[in-house]
Amino acid sequence: MFTYYLKLGARNLRRNPALTALMVLTLAIGVAASVATLTILHVMSGDPLPHKSSRLVVPAFDVGTLDRWTPGTPADDDQHTYRDAMNLLAGGQGERRTALMGVAGPLQPERRDLPPFDVDGGGATRDVFAMFEIPFRFGQAWSAADDKAGADVIVLTRKLSEKLYGDANPVGRRVRFSGFDFVITGVMEHWDPVPRFYRVLGMGAFDREDEFFLPLASAVRHELRNNGSTWCNKPFGAGYQAFLDSECTWLQVWFELPSAADRPALQDWLNGYTAEQRRLGRLPRKAPVYLYDLPEWLVHLKVVGNDNRLSAWLALGFLALCLVNTIGLLLAKFSVRASEVGVRRALGATRGDIFRQFLTESAVIGLAGGVLGLLLAFGALALISLQSKELALVAHMDWLMLAATFAMAVGAAVLAGLLPTWRACQVTPALQLKSQ
Asked: Where, by residue number, does the polypeptide cross the bilayer (predicted)?
């Protein structure tokens, strides 16, 4: 019977094509506006590593001075000093741990047809690859010995590798970066997490991707400056070593725990570490230690702002307005078919039969609106992606939002059709037959 109602609904849509087209277009515009906005919000607020995000945690404690500080106010920065970062890594907590900094500089290709160009990347410990599940196309991460020695080794992204060497495997070759020769140990497969959670403070959640990784110890040995957020709350002496010894915060530290249940143990260890540092004359603010897992970290940094949520609510409000218009159009469409309903009722159709027939017809309108709305949403996302590189990262639709588009369109049409369908069921057969 449903198939019959479906065919009947499709046939009835052709009886008044202008009114049908207006309903489909109204619904499609509302769905497209909502889906385009919700798609961006969905991508921006996504969990990059949902299967382990509760085990990836970020510690944060305040190293600021008492000058111009009001108790209870947030820390100046959620990053760490070099001293603290090295101590946290040496503490051996968790399954894995890493510290990251930004690295930028000129790269001189071997190819004569390519002039030198600037690249942006990261300095990290080797655990960064396993911790964040970075895939490899060629080679592998550098060794633990390379980490310890600060060896001149490097891992390239696939995009940078193909720019330098085409499809060839470059592992073992040397690339000159910032005046130093680095041996390529691996090439990453495409890895572009959105949001870019691992170094939000240094590069932004929707900014450029790191084009390479090299050992943090190597970046420090070559005295490379941090390319990203650096906060110094008091002056320090001249020279790179003075910078390392200072209370400047510029490194992001991550821990991977065996399970989320191990989080209290890490919290206790961090509390003990900060208490020890206070005994050594540091951390005068005596602020608490915070520990954020990956989702909490993104919320803490306000990766998804209130403006984005407000835009989503406004888009849903626009969809509601389109629904009101669709209800009015369906009322007009169904009201002129009162005689048809009366004849069907006189021939034995129940109110339930009429209800299912007209509601199926509303669903057909919703399906047509969903197809058109999907096309309009793709067009809207394409236009949005042209505005900036940051928007291009989030203005794309996945399978979840694709399914949500049709569900929203059909659901909205069925919802809009409830009142007109109910009104159609109230037709009195005798009155309609008398009027014929």
From this structure: 21-44, 310-332, 364-387, 399-419
